[in-house]
Amino acid sequence: MRTLLFCLLILSLPAAAQVYTYIDAEGNRVFTDKPQQGDAETVQLAPANGMGAPASVPAYVEPPTAAPALAYQMLRILIPNPDATIRDNAGNLIVTANSEPTLHPGHGYRLLLDGAAVGEAGRSPVFTLENIDRGTHQLAVEIVDAQGRTVERTPSQPFHMLRISLAQKRMVKPCKKADYGVRPECPLKDKPPEKKDIPFVPFI
After folding, report:
1. pTM higher than 0.85, yes or no?
2. CA dihedral 139, 144, 150, 156 (to 10 degrees)
3. Which of 29, 136, 142, 198 is such that its CA lies 20 to 30 A from the CA of 50?
4. Which domains, ranges and CATH numbers included, belong to the chain?
């Protein structure tokens, strides 16, 4: 019975209260938080099994969905055809490309001639080349993003530029006296020396 009363007393006291015990005049052990006699003893209490408030659990956040890659189903060169022969004495050529879908925002077309970029990337798929040397060359078109990274690229395709040489031009149209220094195929260094007129002196 005393043990039960002691437990009830302990539970009823504040967590920080001190408990004392002593023997009263009738020989009964008394437990209290206010000692009445000088021989009261302090009761050592076991630490309470209190639990702190649970830490707040962050709500589940759906991870952001990655933006779809800006891809292209097709990129090709329309003009010239692969392995085409171009006959142009000035060495000029127009290259046209096409993509599906059309360019995404921030992307541009760039032309490669023999593996080297020609000019800056732009929104137009039409390129003009001038004074291309005679012989076989490689063409490719690529799509680049705003950072200049290649997004899509066509396979390299050859074409052949035919230009009449200066020697062939001279054979077709021989140089005349007035042509030297005027026509590219008739440079001044090739101009034949002019014959000096020797005055006629009659024999006496």
Report:
1. no
2. -10
3. 29
4. 2-43 (no CATH), 74-162 (2.60.40.10)
What is the C-alpha separation between 144 and 146, in angstroms, rounded?
A: 7
User: Which are the contacts of 200, defined by CB distance < 8 A and separation ≥ 6?
Assistant: none
Residue 204's identity, in one-letter code, is I
Per-residue pLDDT of the chain (204 residues; tens, 9 = 90+): 555 454 555 555 454 467 777 777 777 777 777 766 566 777 666 665 555 556 666 676 676 655 456 789 999 999 999 999 999 988 999 999 999 999 999 999 999 999 999 999 999 999 999 999 999 999 999 999 999 999 999 999 999 999 877 777 777 788 887 888 888 878 888 888 877 766 666 655
Compute CA 159 distance to the chain's CA centroid, rounded to the nearest angstrom. 31
Taken as a whole, the chain contains a residue count of 204
